[in-house]
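Reviewers of the previous submission asked for a worked example of the structure-prediction workflow described in the proposal, so we include one complete record here. The input consisted solely of the amino acid sequence. No template or homolog information was supplied to the procedure at any stage.
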Amino acid sequence: MPTYQLLPRFLRDHKSLTKRDADAFRQAVALFIAGLRQGTFDSRLRVKRVKSTADVWEMSWAPDGRATFQYGPEVVPGEPHIVWRRVGDHSVLARNP
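From that input alone, the workflow returned the following structure tokens.
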């Protein structure tokens, strides 16, 4: 099972989500985890590296819903470790991705 870490700014962002958006994000995370296990992400998530960064990635969870993350050092051998950085609308990409 992949492990994860939530950065403080992710937690602040998440608190600002509406219940509907938080539910949509939770559903997208289920697809995201399945993609981690399979080695390929569902195309609906549009997972890609954030431009001008070496190690920050984004995924889409709604038409204007984005989350940024990076891969951290393994916590459990052989399992990916995800560091969730930001979550919200498209503007999270412009504010310290």
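The two ends are 26 Å apart (CA to CA). We consider this example representative of the routine output the project will generate in years two and three.
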